[in-house]
Amino acid sequence: MTIFNLGSVNIDRFYALPHLPQPGETLSASNYSVGLGGKGMNQSVAAARAGAKVHHIGAIGQSDNWVRERIESYGVDCTYLHGLDYNTGHAIIYVDAHGENTIVLDAGANTQQDTHCISKAIETAKSHDTMLLQNETNLQPQAAELALAKGVRVIYSAAPFSVEAVRPLLPHVSILVMNAVEAEQLCSEMGVTLDKIPVPQVLVTLGAKGAMWRSNETGEVIEVTAPKVAAVDTTAAGDTFAGYFAAGLDLGLSTRKAMDWATQAAALKVTRHGTADAIPKAVDVAAFQAS
Ligand code: RIB
């Protein structure tokens, strides 16, 4: 089975800081590095490292060959990754001494994709495949609608969170993934409780506490806890979770097992600096789980 991921590709620029900057403050970074990222790409890399077959649907600047080569080196298929006459998206990421971050984004090519390229990719999907989406590209509702109409499982990882972005997706989503703050925000904006969000399944990540899944069709609830770790960088932990979770379901795991696996992978990720480049392989997750 295959995961089709319509997602962002960013060049991530990391600045290690003693604390996150205050308005008007000038700070010196103790370290600077550049890597591959974007919520979409992080999720594609996580799913590929988990062992799933992944087609990334996206766009980068046409001269950034190293980006494409890096993505391919992680086992993500780039057939539907288009080179456009725009800059590759980029992110400025401040990481403080406790591993917390602040991110500034420039979308670049991520939001310049055209319907034709996306539908060409989704046309090849089969009903047992999975479509993954986040909120860093254009054409999310159109892609979700096309995929769901083909019977594909549609997982929407609603980050970066915006109520305006998530609303049009709701009729076309099988599993809505949010963190606890986002879930609370969505419920309060819609004036409903979690069980009344009009999607078949909701999955709420709870950071160091684990995750909670709910079927809004049957009322079944699954909760998993996360292992305790010393976090050095929480960036892309949610993406690692979403990619591993999607891969788990795609590879035939039960929802609980996929959640457990994703929670372990995300916990291991936060012990490493970086984003896509730091996402653990399945073999490392297995060793971590056993330890
Ligand atoms: O979730 C982390 C990601 O958010 C980074 O890789 C950055 O590119 C932004 O998209």
Assigned CATH architecture: 3-Layer(aba) Sandwich
What count of domains describes the coordinates? 1
Instruction: Give helix % range.
Output: 25-40%
Strands in their spatial order, largest beta sheet: 5-4-1-8-9-10-11-12-13
Averaged pLDDT: 97
Features:
single chain, 291 residues, alpha/beta, UDP-N-acetylmuramoyl-L-alanine:D-glutamate ligase, nine-stranded mixed sheet, four-stranded mixed sheet, 9 helices, binds alpha-D-ribofuranose
What does this structure look like?
Helix 3 (115-123) packs parallel to helix 4 (140-149) and helix 8 (255-269) packs across helix 9 (282-290). The radius of gyration is 18 Å and the shape is globular. The chain has 291 residues and is α/β, with parallel strands linked by helices. The chain has a single domain, classed as Ribokinase (UDP-N-acetylmuramoyl-L-alanine:D-glutamate ligase), CATH 3.40.1190. A 9-stranded mixed beta sheet has the order 5-4-1-8-9-10-11-12-13, sandwiched between helices. A 4-stranded mixed beta sheet has the order 3-2-6-7. It contains 9 helices and 13 strands. Bound molecules: alpha-D-ribofuranose. Alpha-D-ribofuranose (RIB) is lined by residues 8, 10, 12, 37-39, 42, 91, 103, 105, 136, 235-236, 239, 275.
